[in-house]
Amino acid sequence: MPDLRVGEAVGLLEISGAWLVDPVAGREGPGEVVVRDGILEAVTWLRGAAADGIGPNGILVVPGFLDLHVHLREPGNEDAETVASGLAAAAHGGFTTVCAMPNTTPAADEPGVLARVASAAAASGSPVELLAHGAVTVARAGERLAALGELADAGAVGFSDDGSPVKSAVLMRNALLYAGMLGLPIVEHAEDPTLTVGAEASEGLVATILGLKGWPAAAEVSAVERAIAILDSVRADAPGARLHLTHLSTAGALDAVRRAKAAGLPVTCDVTPHHLGFTDEWVAGSRRWAWEALDDAGAARDPWADGALVAHPYATSCRVNPPLRGATDAAACLAALIDGTADAVATDHAPHTAVDKETEFGLAANGISGVETAFGVLLAAVMAGKLPLARAVAALTVGPATVLGARQGRRGATRGLLEGAPADLVVVDAGAGWQVTRDALASRGKNTPLLGRDLPGRILFTVAQGRLAYSDADA
Amino acid sequence: MSTTHPATTPDVGWRQKHLLDVDVLSLAEIELVMRTTDAMKEVLARPISKVPALRGTNVTILFYEASTRTRVSFEVAAKNLSADVVNIAASSSSVTKGESLVDTIRTVEALGADMIVMRHGTSGAPYLAAEVFAGSILNGGDGWHAHPSQALLDLYTMRAHLGDVRGKKVVILGDVLHSRVARSNVWSLTAAGADLWICGPTTILRGFDAWAGRWTGGGAPGHAGFRVTSDVDAALRDADVVMALRLQRERMDAGLLPSLREYAARFGLTRERLAFAKPTALVMHPGPMNEGVEIAPDVAILDRSVITEQVTNGVAVRMALLYLLAGGHPEAVTNA
Questions:
Q1: B147 to chain A nearest CA, in Å?
Q2: Are B144 and A360 a contacting pair at CB < 8 A?
Q3: First-to-last CA distance in chain A?
Q4: Is there a contact between A59 and A389 (Cβ–Cβ < 8 Å)?
Q5: To pair with B104 at 20 to 30 A between CA atoms, which of A383, B76, B121, B261?
């Protein structure tokens, strides 16, 4: 698309010899697409079986991705990210819709803050759709309910005190009841803070050897169990109550969700690319994928014994909340994604400044800048034979759309490849890789342990609402 | 003298730019430290225990935590080698001004430091310093993580009495969870083939089972091994070395232990308990001691207590480490 700039309508884009994935139709296979004047004019499925896989030219066409969980840092911490840089980063990652978390300064606990974020998105010129979660409590302080109804009227798609859990059980109960009345989910960061005071790395061999304060799995599991029990108790009074558990990282928490779903509770959850692709070994200096850190019996390998430690230990880019877990927990995240226990992959994109990260591990800010590398991490799992491609795409499209329910896609993104709809899609060269470098990242947050590494899946074009959101300079 | 290199000692050289922990040291490098320490002990035995080996070298001692013995030990070691020594107590100056560690290291470098001996309360801090400093970082203790010079002086002291620690039962008794001394000793003692036992109440052993689990193959008495137990009598039985660790009062506040009294009763190293160990068993402590808590006063002064010898050997080991990091060879010490 020569000379087309971000934000302009796509006049004509023809892709042939591609591999198409349409999670709405539940279909994948070889095909061609034509976008004309911003509309997905034609989708032609050619003969060929799913087993054939991505074709020889490696071009993949999939619907635009939806991220339930990003931190855009505006207002208040524009050194780390702005709405404009965050949306550019999202487009580079293939996302055409993102949901901003409310832990800004001030927090999005009143409609004015949401309006300010929305106007920044409009001013950015990016066609990437910005949705927003409102805070559950005033200033996320966990004392009084925020203006939930007004936030809903202003377009909030859910409520979260993310960064922290909803402080008390009684507030969680009331929030679920009230948000249920509004038809919106509570998006819970599940953590029992009494178990994580000063915690630095997932409790286990790595934390013990490195002398880091352990971050027990029980802090997440017990918080998830508590939230589910409260959800169960409010259903009779608020049939619309919904609980979404974000960035689950432990086998125990995912098992709890699996049981709750089997019991028919209205609970959903997401996992992040870093919790399924990276492990706590990375804090010690390993950089192998989580699925490479398991032995044949499914137990975690010992990176001190098998030569996996290739980088300096204590890289603050690996410090995140919840922490990178052991390989068996990472495998549980992947398994939950495959069996549908995890409805979505969300990035928890958490950009930070160099000042907040170039410090001692124990003092560094939590978070990984991840919206641009998410699909590459999933594609690495696909290429290793650990994750079906169609499931990876579904978890970035229809999965999160279902979590949002009626509020998703207010501008009409279908999360499928639907002829006649505004084009909302990603064109990926799955046969080509790209190196994650500071310059390659559009985000202001360069805080990822993938820096310097080659990732599969070069995103060539991201088209959102018929307009160009991102194009590769060499495409 | 033959000019060909003996094939049996292919890799005896010192390869480290920094010394951040003992986990990266090969057995040959540990041996080199021990031999160099022997040479430094000879220097210390002289009427004028000073050599010009580090003349013109600026050693900055940068301590973010209050410490007397380790700081003075490094200072004496550096001065014995004729280094120029600068002392910075960073906890009282830069941190309160909000100065970052990276900025402090760059400033110290600009002031001419060739080596930094660093003590910091945060695990891993010296690794960050090593990334930005052009010279050598010698870790003088970081958080709960590592205290390599202490582990090497402990090993040196054990070897001085036992010859070799291979197969010898070494017990570390006390608060290992918060102990950088214990962690570095795990690396050096398992590398040296000791039969290592770690003992304390379960609340402050948390996580060490997983580490000990890496040695599931070994563990027969008299062989290399690594075990964790709360059974203090089993741990001490026939021990060759018993090292008690300091128990800090903050541990009670964190709810990890009921009381100092209960700890002393159940895990304190007393004469009665020490009777389970071999009659010749060495008593060690990295200091500073809480006498009457983790170690009884009359145990600390037994003939087989080598606690003050640890302090003396500490100077020699630190001289050896500074010297090796500066590129010195052990054979050249006495001619230096």
A1: 11
A2: no
A3: 8
A4: no
A5: B76
Q: What are phi and psi of B178, to 5 degrees?
A: -100, 15
On whether any CB of chain A is under 8 Å from the CB of B13, the answer is no
Interface probe for A, chosen from B127, B177, B185 (most Cβ of A below 10 Å), is B127
Question: What is the ipTM, given to two decimal places?
Answer: 0.92
Q: Which residue has the tokens 């990242």?
A: A441
Predicted TM-score (pTM) of the model is: 0.94
Q: Is there a contact between A416 and A468 (Cβ–Cβ < 8 Å)? A: no
Amino acid code (one letter) for B107: T
DSSP state for residue A352 in the 8-state scheme = -
The b/e string for A331-341 (b: 16+ C-beta within 10 A; e otherwise) is bbbbbbbbeeb
Name the percent of chain A in helix, strand, coil, to the closest 5: 30, 25, 45
pLDDT at residue B4 above 90? no
> Can you name the residues that pair with A137 across neighbouring β-strands?
A145
Q: What is the mean pLDDT of residues A125-139?
A: 97
Q: What domains can be seen in chain B, in order of their start residue?
A: 22-147+313-335 (3.40.50.1370), 150-306 (3.40.50.1370)
Kindly state whether B21 is in contact with chain A, defined as any CB-CB distance less than 8 angstroms: no
Enumerate residues 6+ apart whose C-beta is below 8 A from A279.
A286, A290, A293, A300, A324, A325, A326, A327, A330
Closest by alpha carbon to B325, among B101, B29, B70, B105? B29
Answer whether A40's CB lies under 8 Å from A22's CB: no
The distance from CA A256 to its chain's CA centroid, rounded to whole angstroms, is: 21
Residues of chain B contacting residue A361, judged by C-beta atoms under 8 Å apart? 122-125, 128
A 316-375 residues inside an 8 A Cβ radius of B: 355, 358-363
Q: Tell me the nearest-neighbour CA distance from B159 into chain A, angstroms.
A: 25
Q: Which of B101, B128, B143 sits opposite A211 (nearest CB)?
A: B143
- Partner-chain contact B145 A211, CB within 8 Å: yes
In angstroms, how far is the first alpha carbon of chain B from the final one? 22
- What confidence tier does A325 reach under pLDDT thresholds 50, 70, 90? very high
Residue whose pair of structure tokens reads 């709750």 in the numeric block: A260
Using CA coordinates, name the residue in chain B closest to A315.
Answer: B128
Residues 107 through 126 of chain B touching chain A, CB cutoff 8 Å: 120, 122-125
A205 → closest Cβ in B125, B206, B211: B211
d(CA B19, CA B327): 13
**Helix segments in A281-415, DSSP class H:** 281-284, 327-339, 354-357, 374-383, 389-396, 398-404
Residue of A nearest to B183 (CA): A209
A343-392 pLDDT tens trace:
999 999 999 999 999 999 999 999 999 999 999 999 999 999 999 999 99
The H or E element containing residue A232 is helix A217-234
* CB-CB under 8 Å, A212 with B207: no
DSSP string, A248-315: ---HHHHHHHHHHHHTT--EEEEE-HHHHH--THHHHTB-S-GGGSB-TTSPBP-TTTTT-B-S-TT-
Q: Domains of chain A by range and CATH?
A: 63-411 (3.20.20.140)
Contacts of A302 in chain B (CB under 8 A): 214
Q: So what's the pLDDT on residue A473?
A: 81
Q: Are B132 and B116 in contact (CB under 8 A)?
A: no
A348 catalytic? Reply is yes
